[in-house]
Specification:
Blueprint (H helix, E strand, L loop, with lengths): L3 H4 L7 E9 L16 E2 L2 E2 H12 E8 L4 H4 L8 E4 L8 H15 L5 E6 L9 H9 L6 E6 L2 E10 L3 H10 L5 H5 L4 E6 L13 H13 L2
Parallel strand pairs: 1-4, 1-6, 4-5, 7-9
Antiparallel strand pairs: 2-3, 6-8, 7-8
Helix pairs in contact: 4-6
């Protein structure tokens, strides 16, 4: 089997203005309640793979969880990552995690201008993700950029400017707004395309079949 480390040599420059935020608060209903970040692929946990990608590209990395209760945080303690809780209670979805990350960046990382949100179940994220999204975001009025591949937009893989923090809070808390893509579509946003060759760089794992497909891709060297 070709190892993930052997397949992915990163020639990237860390972006000090970006805090990477790994969204790890999903319920994983299609995986029979198993915690997706802790599933293993190629001998490593999914969360380890995403964290390695984030650390290679961004000046700081944090983990987004629903809350900071010891039983919630304990399974991830060995990562050595700071943890940002959702900005609102009640499992309101990824927008609550993103807002929590923006609040965390504002409070803990004064040099940060952006938060890069990443799914916890994307083992093949591209090495140039932060750099390309940042370049595109700087060309927009809003400072927003998101990834796309194969004709499909991936709203959760996105760069969020801290200056939109209060507008996101108003949408989430006052308007009960939950849809990531629809919130982004309110603004001038850059959508950056990545090619799909042997596999989709934004392939994510939602079912046991997805996990099996990812294992096969590693075995085949795809």
């Amino acid at each position: 089997m070709l190892s993930i480390a052997g397949m992915r040599t990163r020639m990237t420059e860390k972006r000090p203005e970006i805090l990477a935020l790994i969204l790890a608060g999903g319920l994983a209903r299609r995986l029979e309640g198993r915690a997706k970040p802790l599933l293993r692929l190629g001998g490593r946990r999914l969360i380890d793979l995403v964290a390695a990608t984030a650390r290679a590209q961004c000046g700081a990395v944090a983990l987004s969880l629903h809350d900071l209760a010891p039983e919630t945080v304990a399974p991830f303690a060995d990562l050595g990552l700071a943890v940002a809780a959702d900005a609102a209670p009640g499992r309101l979805g990824p927008l609550a995690g993103v807002l929590g990350g923006l609040d965390f960046a504002a409070a803990r990382h004064p040099g940060a201008e952006f938060v890069l949100s990443l799914p916890c179940d994307g083992p093949f994220l591209p090495d140039d993700l932060a750099a390309r999204l940042l370049a595109a975001a700087r060309q927009t009025k809003s400072g927003l950029a998101r990834a796309a591949s194969g004709g499909r937009i991936h709203p959760v893989v996105a760069l969020w400017p801290l200056r939109l923090r209060e507008e996101l809070r108003h949408a989430l808390v006052e308007q009960d707004f939950r849809a990531v893509g629809e919130f982004q579509d309110r603004y001038d946003i850059a959508t950056v395309q990545w090619p799909v060759t042997q596999r989709d760089p934004f392939f994510n794992i939602n079912t046991p079949d997805d996990l099996a497909r990812a294992e096969k891709a590693l075995t085949d060297g795809a």
